[in-house]
Amino acid sequence: MRPEIHEPLTRFLFEAEDAHPWWRFRIFAALRGAPFTALPYASKVTGLLEDLSMETPPLGAIGIGQLIARIDRDWDTRSEIRQKIAEHLPMLKTRARRTNELLADLLRKSSPE
User: Fold this and answer.
1) Is residue 57 a contact partner of residue 39, using CB atoms and an 8 Å limit?
2) What is the full per-residue pLDDT of the chain (113 aa) written as tens digits?
3) How far is 53 from 57, CA to CA, in rounded Å?
4) How many Å apart are CA 4 and CA 57, to the nearest integer?
5) Which of 8, 9, 35, 103 has the highest CB neighbour number within 10 Å of its CB?
6) Count of domains for the chain
7) Which among 46, 20, 25, 66 has a CA at the least distance from the CA of 74?
8) Residue 82 is part of which domain span?
């Protein structure tokens, strides 16, 4: 990617006010095929879990005991979680590439020549 497009895209993805570091860890874990457990504290986390066909617990209805049980269950089923990630990751990568292409086109069109 050209530097003039890469820099604004990087700033947008990693310096935005709502770009919480925990969000990025889930994406990086999925890209590596590493199983993870997530609480849907934001719509983008819920969307990622849904796209990976992973269970999305209601955040307001989960207590500490339920959270610990969920983490324990996810640890026990990490192979299945890893498989779900592997099945859905190609589609997510394709969609992300398309989003990147659209953003790059928009930046090219809006930048002064």
Assistant:
1) yes
2) 444 444 554 444 444 445 455 556 777 788 888 888 877 777 788 888 889 898 877 767 777 788 888 888 888 999 999 999 999 999 988 888 898 899 888 888 887 76
3) 12
4) 40
5) 35
6) 1
7) 66
8) 3-110
